[in-house]
Write a structure and sequence with these properties.
Layout: E1 2-4, E2 11-13, E3 20-22, E4 29-32, E5 37-42, H1 49-60, H2 69-72, E6 74-91, E7 97-103, E8 123-124, H3 142-151, E9 160-178, E10 181-188, E11 194-196, H4 205-225, H5 229-253
Parallel strand pairs: 5-9
Antiparallel strand pairs: 1-2, 3-4, 4-5, 5-8, 6-7, 6-9, 9-10, 10-11
Helix pairs in contact: 4-5
């Protein structure tokens, strides 16, 4: 079976049953989808497993998650893979070009859609890449991915479709346990970005209670002081000291 290279128009021999082909004339890497032949690319990995876990732990130490998550979370699994994404380049009616990504394999987490693909970092897939276990073969057709993309809320792809390509993005996928609950996160091995799924969030209840308690305390002091402004200011200053101390204690524990 032969196909026409979309880069140089040369005839490329394709092994029966194989979805990947490589043009010997221009070194293009091609993927045979059900309805079209598209280029397929890869991104270089610049973040190894240890660096990825360090990035994840730094995120766990942030203010959005439950306190001490970076110390208490136990890594359950960690795997590295080159995950396939469909890359759609569209020109909107306004003339602006947009690039959208959609998952090309069913074994995925929705949070992986947050991964970005810089155009300058794209390189053609190499024949030897297909022999590496980390490269996940796509199992979602481009047309299906495009329909999902069009149907997603708030996303417009009504413009002209300029290019469809397949991109393999290096990712570190983690599962970690916290208080007997398993959570997941993805670290982009090309850019180092951390993309968590559902995670244990920091409770806002102690802060709300502290705020309400402070308002009540100042209201009562204001009523007790009556119209005496000087007395009211002194009472507020005296009350502020224990309230600030209580706020610091809540911030440390919550």
């Amino acid at each position: 079976m032969e196909i026409t290279c979309t880069q140089c128009a040369a005839q490329v021999e394709v092994v029966e049953g194989e979805a990947f082909a490589f043009c010997p004339h221009c070194d293009s890497s091609l993927f045979l989808d059900r309805t079209k032949v598209v280029f397929n690319y890869r991104l270089e990995s610049t973040v190894d497993g240890d660096a990825a876990e360090s990035a994840l732990r730094r995120w766990m130490a942030g203010n959005d998650v439950v306190k001490n998550l970076d110390q208490e979370a136990e890594t359950v699994s960690r795997r590295f893979e080159h995950f396939p994404f469909w890359r759609f380049c569209c020109r909107q009616p306004s003339g602006v070009e947009q690039v959208h990504l959609e998952l090309a394999h069913a074994d995925a987490n929705a949070v992986m859609r947050r991964v970005s693909v810089p155009a300058g970092g794209l390189k053609f897939l190499r024949p030897e890449d297909l022999h590496e276990e980390s490269f996940i073969r796509p199992d979602i057709p481009a047309e299906s991915a495009l329909q999902w993309l069009k149907g997603r809320e708030g996303l417009t792809t009504t413009g002209e479709l300029l290019e469809v390509s397949l991109v393999f993005v290096p990712l570190h996928r983690f599962e970690y346990r916290h208080q007997d609950v398993i959570y997941s996160a993805v670290v982009d091995a090309s850019a180092g970005g951390v993309h968590p799924s559902i995670y244990p969030v920091r409770s806002e209840t102690p802060y709300l209670l502290m705020g309400i308690g402070s308002l009540v305390a100042f209201f009562i002091l204001g009523v007790l002081a009556g119209t005496d402004v000087t007395l009211k200011l002194w009472l507020y200053l005296v009350a502020a000291v224990p309230l600030v101390g209580a706020s610091v204690a809540v911030a440390r524990r919550a």
